[in-house]
Amino acid sequence: MRYALRVLLAQPSFTAVALLTLALGIGANSAIFGIVNAVLLRPLPYGEPDRVVMLWSHWTNWHKTWVSEPELADYQTTLQSLEYVAGFSYDSFNLTGTGEPVRVRAAQVQAAMFAALDVHPILGRVFTADEDRPGAAHVALLTEGLWRSQFGSDPSIVGRTIQLDATSYTVVGVTSSALRLPIDFASRTITHLWLPLRLGPVDPTDRQNHGLTVLGRLRPGVSLARAQAEVDALTGGFFQQFPNFYDRAFGVTVVPASVEVFGDVRPALVVLLLAVGAVLLIACANVANLLLARSDARQKEIAVRVALGASPWQIVRQLMTESLVLAAVGGTLGVGLGWALTRALVVLNPLKIPRVQDVALDGRVVAFTAVLSIATGLLFGLAPALQSSRSSMQPALKQGGRDSRATTGWLRRSLVVFEIAASVVLVAAAMLLARSFARLLDVDAGFTPTHVLTLRTSLPSTHYADGAAMARAYAEVGRRLREAPGVVAAGGVTGLPLATTRGDTGVALEGDPPGGRPDHAADWQVVTPGYFEAMRIPLRAGRTFTEADRADTLPVVVVNEAMAAKFWPGQSPVGRRAALGINSNRWMTVVGVVTDVRHRGLDASARPELYRPHAQFRFGSRDASPNVSALTWAIRTSSDPLAATSAARAAIRAVDPTLGISDVETMEQVLADSTSDRRLNMLLFTLLGGLALALAAVGVYGVVAYSATQRTHEIGVRMAMGARPVDVLRLLLGEGGRLAAIGIAIGSTAALIASRLIRGLLFNVSATDPATFAVVPLALLAVALLASYLPARRAMRVDPMIVLRDS
Fold it and tell me: How many CA atoms lie within 13 A of 518 on its CB side?
């Protein structure tokens, strides 16, 4: 060990290059494994998480949507394969009495939810079934984060009352910060508290409203397939029983909670693990090449050792010790680099990687890195050690160094070919993802995100008992926001594009046969005047909403181009009438057509969508029915949008001092969040591809430089016999070019096969994109020739007289 350290310290250039190469390879693997460990390997925060499942409805054009109250009741009373079934939804409240009003998000859950998840609070208790009934006393469970931030971790919080929308709730417990519902893991919106859902008596024939998310717990010993078969048997008869509410495509999919949480990210992380593994192999090949070159230079030393009685095993042991010392130090540096990379990832905070904030270099990651370092040392050190132990000592002991020809050329060239081939695969993947991301950003979202601030508000039903009161309050909020300094336009919407999921509703067109289930469906939004102007959603025909569109005026609707083209093909929809729901006689007149908004994502096609004015919309058929109480405001400013936050908060509190705001971010950040997973994939693969390319270039440089050194005498003879410098350049460039050509041919074939693994990560780019597979080989060849040119240029300057005299 001491001798190995002395040898490595005596050659600082070699040691520094080897350590840097290993640190990069091991550090990248450590960082990616840290992500995999936090995201995939840690169990979900439930008891026996493999038994927790989600139940999602699916229809024509909707492969994953919510459940109605009668359906939930059917599942709870009929399904025997599920031990517990519970529904939940979300709402927001204004928390007052703790200083400034704070808008908090609540998960409204049935009491059976905690049994279904098999979780327990860290303080107090959970709800009882009696507390989950209409008319019961108001109770709440706080999350640990809210308990710490608003109540100072007060252990006597259990039993105290808090004010939510000016209503008193008794705190019965506090849940761990680790507890999240399965659909919460990939969301920036934090659940602050838990409230009972308190569903009322269910009308089994009223199946129109689907707004509940449902999860369940498999009974012990029951398989997922058995549960799915029972659900299929139950839901298969819904169309015959209630033809006005279902189509033949209706069904329910039982999804394990782990698939719900990790399903979209698991393939990407597996591909990333394979990619960083390839980078580590390239790094190992590079260090092995360095060791082979050094072993040729140490042939005389090794020959002397053998002559003095050293056995082949002792030679191998000494050289392997040096390799393991290199690997150990490189692994230590790699842990530091991996920590820096994981911190950078947490700062990037990609939205669609669940539990990204939990990524850390814990004991498991350090142990993985240690094992990886040892394996790496064995991998790159074994071949040079065996090669050195088998070398003949007679040529090395001769005085003339020219006869001691290296015996490792074929192995070093093979390693370089491997490096180039692996680099082609990684660079091709990086280019495919980069082209995919560029095309995604070229998609017209349907609005202009620059200079737009977004924030969310909620009106408490205790202060605004009917739709008219809510409409007046939000009309005043909109007016004050538009009058705020620096604000160009402002308007509210129920579901912000790219940040929320909207449901659809049946649409009846004037002239359709009366009665029955509507043949048309469209997503729906409720907006206030100024929304289209704030988002700069282009108007294609007619007009948008104004303050004159009140509850007592003509019911109107604005539709998007997709809805216009599908429902009124070849005709202008302006002036046409439509109604929502089943047997509805509340006809609405189309007054405008706006461009399509990519609500579900830039990579998702726009669906038919309609917009209702907030003042006219009701959750029910009576004028006294409640209006939309929660809106997201889009505020277009003339300068930095975040600078308008204070003015917006003041404008809202001028209408109601108890109102809080939440989800404050710019529309550009919303847009960035919607593409964060694709951006992260592109960045990581670009980093890995660039690293692989650099290592491959170093490998080619090393081989050609070493070849030039070994062939110095040959080059001198050639030049003495009339060879020109350009002939020497052509000779050495040809050597590097041949290695590159072989590696590129192998790598291109491997890349065509491997590109199938990232097919699901691409957008509007083929996995066999011709441009990519034309540019990447040429780029790799250019890099290899450049790496060969540098040592070849030095060889061109050889003085044949000096070479021949020294030999």
Answer: 21
- pLDDT grade, residue 393 (50/70/90)? low
Global confidence as pTM: 0.79
Instruction: Say whether both 340 and 302 belong to one domain.
Output: yes
- Would residue 531 count as lying in a domain? yes
Centre a 10 Å sphere on the Cβ of residue 411 and count the other Cβ atoms it contains: 15
703 and 571 in a common domain: no
Task: Note the residue count of the chain.
Answer: 807
331 and 435 fall within a common domain: yes
3-state secondary structure 711-774: CHHHHHHHHHCCCCHHHHHHHHHHHHHHHHHHHHHHHHHHHHHHHHHHHHHCCCCCCCCHHHHH
Q: How far apart are CA 57 and CA 213, in angstroms?
A: 9
Mean pLDDT over 635-650 rounds to 93
Residue where a domain stops, chosen among 624, 657, 690 = 657
CA atoms within 13 A on the CB side of 343: 6
Are 29 and 276 in contact by the 8 Å Cβ rule? The answer is yes
Q: What angle do CA 213, 216, 221 make, to 5 degrees?
A: 160
- Range of lowest pLDDT (96-105, 119-128, 211-220): 96-105
Q: In this structure, are residues 632 and 661 in contact, taking their beta carbons and an 8 Å threshold?
A: no
Is 198 in the same domain as 240?
yes
Asked if the structure places residue 663 within a domain, the reply is: no
Instruction: Flag whether 625 is in a domain.
Output: yes
Residue 326 — very low, low, confident or very high, per pLDDT cuts 50/70/90? confident
Distance of alpha carbon 542 from the chain centroid:
40
CB atoms within 10 A of CB 778: 10
Same domain, 717 and 586: no
With vertex at residue 32, the alpha carbon angle to CA 27 and CA 33, rounded to the nearest 5 degrees, is: 95
Instruction: Give me the DSSP letters along 537-563.
Output: --EEEE----TT--TTS--EEEEEHHH
Q: What are phi and psi of 769, to 5 degrees?
A: -50, 120
pLDDT of residue 403 exceeding 50, the answer is: no
Residue span of the structural domain in which 81 resides? 61-248
The per-residue pLDDT for range 23-32, each reduced to its tens digit, is: 888 888 888 8
pLDDT of residue 4: 80
| 259 in any annotated domain | no
Per-chain mean pLDDT for the chain = 86
Residue 620 sits in the same domain as residue 490: yes
Q: Compute the distance between CA of residue 359 and CA of residue 627 in angstroms, rounded to an integer.
A: 42
| Last-in-domain residue among 626, 657, 688 | 657
Q: 358 and 236, same structural domain?
A: no
Cβ proximity of 562 and 606 under 8 Å: yes
Q: How far apart are CA 234 and CA 173, in angstroms?
A: 37
- Asked if 319 and 341 count as a contact pair (C-beta separation under 8 A), the reply is no
pLDDT (average), residues 464-480: 88
As for how many domains the chain has, the answer is 3
Both 300 and 225 in one domain: the answer is no
Beta bridge partners of 455: 633
DSSP state at residue 137: P
* Range of weakest confidence among 68-77, 162-171, 334-343, 798-807: 798-807
What tokens appear for 103 in the block?
């808008």
